[in-house]
Amino acid sequence: MSKTYLLRHGRLVETEDLGTAAWIDLLSPDREEEKALEKLLGIELPTREDMEEIEISSRLYEEDGGIFMTVQLPATTEEEDAAMGPVTFVLAAGRLVTIRYHDPKSFGIFASRAKRAPIAGDTGETVFLGLLEILVDRLADIIERAGRNVAPVSKGIFQTSGARARPHEHRDFLGTIGRTGDLISDIRDSLMTLDRAVGFYAQHLVRREGTEEQRSRIKTITRDLHSIADHAGFLSGKITLLLDATLGMIEIEQNGIIKIFSVAAVVFLPPTLVASVYGMNFKSMPELNWPLGYPFAIALMIISALLPYWFFKRKGWL
Description:
alpha+beta; Methane Monooxygenase Hydroxylase, Chain G, domain 1; 7-stranded mixed beta sheet; 8 helices
């Protein structure tokens, strides 16, 4: 499926005429669509397998007068689940061609905005720069939402007053931390590939002496990418801290439970010894026929239990 847009008075307008198109957006294209476009532009489009290559030379290159840039972009991130996939930007013959096999929200946002408000310029590079700006804004929004998601976790783990978090809450914390950590990792990967693509395009602008506006917009996009990457790095460190803190709290709770059992065992050991002594069946036992023998044994067991408890409290072990 493909959508084709031309620029009319700075606004995107859908068209079916490839010859007048400024932006051709291919979503899961079939081979017939690719052949028609290759014939029009005189270039060979990358296949899905080519787009998934990890080598820089396979993601960023110039060929037959066209510039090819492949980046990793997220989709469906509303539920902390980034469906990552490659997207290729091709600048050739004054047109922008985008090839993708998933649907990042940024594409729909940009197309909708550009239909309502004019964008500066009338070429595919203008569309490319505007789309890059929307992509950067979208990644910034995702990072900000991830930061908001972990804020309650931080408050719940490090709270100093009120009821402590319960074990099932710790499990929820771990789930949130894990999902958010995966999301941030995916976004950092996306930022890295975008930064490389923008740097590659900036070199192209230098070689062909691009306009001052283009160079200025690229510099702004680069600064924004670096700023978001720094914030993503900060959140990644915070996620690691929260993970360690949560595991530490769980370990403290487990140690507290073991401590209770250990103290209980020590406290009840002397009464158990007393009961064992008076439970022996010897005829010559002084207290056997003593009327106060039973109360004496009970009192001895209580005192022998209280003494270790008092000793532990005095030492500060409880």
